[in-house]
Amino acid sequence: MLGQGLAEMFRRLLRAVARPMKRDRGRGGYVVHPYRGYGAHGEALLMGRVFRQSSLGGWVPRYGVLRDLSDVARRIARRGMPEVTVEITLGDNVTTVTTDRDGYFDAHLPLVHPLPQDTAWHHAELHAVIPNAPPISSFVEVYVSPPEADLLVISDIDDTVMYTGVANKLRMLHRLFVKQAHQRMAFPGVAAFYQALHAGESGQAKRPILYVSRGPWSIYEMLEEFFQLNRIPVGPILFLREWGISWRKPWPRRAEDHKYDLIQQMLSMRDDLPCVLIGDSGQHDPEVYARIVHEFPERIRAVYIRRVERKPERERAINALREELRHTGCELVLAADSAAMAEHALRQGLIAESGLEAVRRESEA
What we know:
- The structure is a single chain.
- By secondary structure, the chain is α/β, with parallel strands linked by helices.
- The protein has ten helices and 14 strands.
- Strand 10, helix 5 and strand 11 form a beta-alpha-beta unit.
- The longest helix is centred in the first third of the chain and has 17 residues.
């Protein structure tokens, strides 16, 4: 039985890792793969990668373990294309960037020409020019926070929005790479709480919600599917880490450094907005967020930390941080569930009464 269970887990892991390769139907070739972008105050940020992947041989079957193994091999063998020119068009705004040595690009597009005001999501087109090859194109959606937004929400994903078991590394890998999106359990009340934060006290605020994850870019598509299936407000999932599994970069960048730098960048893009930070107690979120509060004491309205484990020493450390932040006027809330966060948010005027009621209903369902 144990052997059968391990074999099934291997097959599911294999399918999960191979899944992003199915789109090209084995044809291979050059790909420009952008990630959903974010814009504010005259600038849009887009990230992506240009790479080349091999084609499948004619002898490889269309389905089955051999096909999945072949697709995994193709994925591992992807070769990032350096020094490729990528032209990005958003409305009448155009910029050109060049990929780095691993094929990644990070574009800061000045929004000189106004975008339509009747929507927050805008369509960007990308065109990559590769020497001695036909040009390749793609598109991506960019969220530009509207003028009526009055709050910025920055949230962790792992063990904050969905349960991944970060404290147990093997369990985390199983949930990240093996579980289907609909099986990645969202915490009760999360969807309603984030919907309430997005709508604000008025119900029409359309606040930007940005998500940060400790996971690699390879789970980007699964995260998007998870958010949509669970009715969690979809925002730019810009900020996963490139785990860097290569000979040049065998280890990923430290998660806390990655998160700290990105939060700083997002705060600078909307320096007129107060902010709420949401994370969990399992790793470094309380320490990273406390550091942000000290540096931006007038801007952080609240820090919500989901309690995912009950270790006395960890509880004492977080409580010490809460006392440390009292003089800033920002309260760090260590909460066992989404309803407790929503109750505090209502008292602070961050959500409407109807939002709290929705969180309670969803939490009890």
